[in-house]
Specification:
Tick-borne Encephalitis virus Glycoprotein, domain 1, 5-stranded antiparallel beta sheet, alpha+beta
């Protein structure tokens, strides 16, 4: 790949070629068929198939020649479509034009800016300058600055208490989280009263603790436990343990004990000294935390980890250094795609004139049903949000997908009914649902950039989401010559891919990724 300034020349050359091809396409019917919907549909189908293979096998094919070829061809096709939309703007849906423009800008800048992109992980120790990073491939790279960790802070959630079975080594799903200094809660048939809570404590005797802020200190609590059914009870100290001390449990009968779970991080941050290489540059003190990266020129420094064994006493911080000078252009493309998706989701006036209040009412009901089903699953109950999930993008990202799922569900039902009655497929819900899918995907990409420094990482959830998004785009690009049954089959395939994105991928052994919490 070509680096700056040749990467800019390449971007201009590709845009110029797209304009030329659009001019040729208008005069030659052969090119009109080749560079129009047929080629776009074929490329999108290939992208769907490749994403399915990646999702099922877990193979990393994002840099393989088929994926690169597909994305390069899609970039050119999007450029031609964008120019065509601009030339016939009055006759184009604004959502389609903005979507084409946004997708073209994002794909083009991702393609041309790849050689200018740098990324390295650095373990920055306390009071020791470090300038050596590791790439994803495991290669050592020298950064243009040194970093020296000054302070590492971590904010944790309140402690949680559960019942631990010492025979089966299982933990109760139900937990007690005190909200007051002397709170009372219930776990199963056991009533737990918090008498004393020490956030930093050291063992005073064999079964007692005293407050002491010192390296290796552990949270500890004095509890009173009783059983509603008259079983054994007890009172005493428990602690979650640290890298210096083992956890202490409070036995309540022969097999059960109360366990204080280790505190989960709500947010963590690092303050460090950044010293640029060069005489004219002065050192700077910067702070980075999850979802709020520090900035130095075109570099962004992300807080991605720490020594989890030592917890709040971590002696180093894991920082991700990303140099992405094309990021503003790529972000502009995503915002255009987000606006285009919103315009597609709104639909046309004729849609509301034809279907009245059915669209918003049905969407709300189905979106609530999707959300209730998702949040009611056991793995979501009682969960404390990981630091990366504590973002302003969380609610709009999830809400857009919930409403998108409801719209495409309505679209599938409408398509089945229209096909059974022998009518032409005129339902508008698929296009509106695709607009919301685009919004959800773009908001997720912007969120990922804030949290991890990359818009897209091709983890299992993202891979299946891309397959679903592209499959619904195929539905929208199928030519009128395709039969109604083939249109319906395409919608069914897209809906099945949506189910894989939503919950089906959890059944696969390749489901672990950034979206696993």
């Amino acid at each position: 790949m070509l680096a700056y300034p040749w990467s800019v020349v390449l971007a201009l050359a590709i845009t110029y070629i797209a304009v030329l091809l659009q001019g040729i396409k208008g005069r030659r019917p052969f090119f009109q068929n080749l560079l129009g919907r047929p080629l776009a549909t074929a490329l999108l189908m290939c992208l769907v198939l490749l994403c399915i293979v990646m999702g099922i096998t877990g193979a990393h094919l994002q840099h393989s020649w088929p994926m690169v070829l597909i994305l390069d061809m899609l970039t050119l096709v999007e450029g031609v479509a964008m120019v065509d939309d601009a030339m016939h703007l009055r006759h184009r849906h604004p959502g389609a034009f903005l979507s084409h423009l946004g997708a073209y800008v994002f794909l083009l800048t991702s393609l041309c800016g790849h050689a200018d992109y740098e990324r390295a992980t650095v373990n920055v120790p306390l009071d020791t300058p470090s300038a050596l990073g590791m790439t994803v491939d495991g290669n050592a790279v020298q950064l243009p600055f040194t970093m020296e960790l000054k302070t590492f802070t971590i904010d944790t959630y309140p402690p949680r208490f559960c019942i631990y079975n010492t025979r089966s080594h299982t933990v109760s799903d139900e937990m007690f989280t005190p909200t007051t200094p002397h709170g009372t809660g219930k776990v199963g048939t056991w009533h737990i009263t918090l008498d004393t809570l020490l956030t930093d404590a050291m063992p005073d005797t064999l079964d007692a603790f005293r407050p002491l802020l010192h390296v290796g200190a552990t949270p500890a609590a004095y509890l009173r436990v009783s059983n509603a059914q008259g079983g054994m009870a007890g009172e005493g100290w428990v602690c979650s343990g640290s890298f210096l001390f083992e956890p202490m449990l409070l036995p309540v009968n022969d097999t059960l004990s109360v366990w204080m779970r280790p505190a989960e991080a709500r947010q963590y941050a690092s303050t460090f000294m950044l010293n640029p290489q060069g005489k004219s540059n002065t050192p700077r003190v910067l702070t980075t935390q999850v979802n709020h990266p520090a900035q130095w020129g075109a570099w962004r420094i992300y807080q991605t980890g720490y020594d989890t064994e030592r917890g709040k006493w971590s002696s180093y911080s894991v920082l991700e250094c990303v140099h992405d000078p094309w990021s503003p252009a790529r972000q502009a493309g995503l915002w255009l795609l987000l606006t285009g998706g919103a315009a597609m989701a709104v639909g046309r006036r004729t849609t509301y004139a034809r279907h009245g209040r059915m669209i918003p009412l049905t969407c709300v009901l189905l979106a609530l049903a999707y959300a209730a089903f998702s949040l009611a699953r056991p793995q979501f109950l009682g969960r404390q949000l990981a630091p990366a999930l504590r973002s302003v993008w969380f609610i709009p990202h999830v809400a857009a997908y919930m409403f998108a799922y409801s719209l495409v569900s309505i679209g599938l039902i409408a398509a089945i009914v229209q096909t059974m009655r022998g009518r032409t497929l005129t339902e508008p819900f698929t296009a509106m649902g695709w607009g919301l899918l685009s919004m959800g995907m773009v908001m997720g990409a912007l969120w990922a950039k804030q949290a991890w420094g990359d818009y897209w990482t091709w983890d299992p959830k993202e891979t299946w989401a891309a397959a679903t998004w592209a499959a619904y785009l195929v539905c929208l690009h199928l030519p009128p010559t395709v039969s109604k049954k083939q249109h319906l089959a395409a919608r069914i395939v897209a809906f099945l891919l949506l189910q894989m994105t939503w919950y089906g991928l959890n059944l696969l052994p390749t489901s672990e990724g950034l979206h696993t919490y």
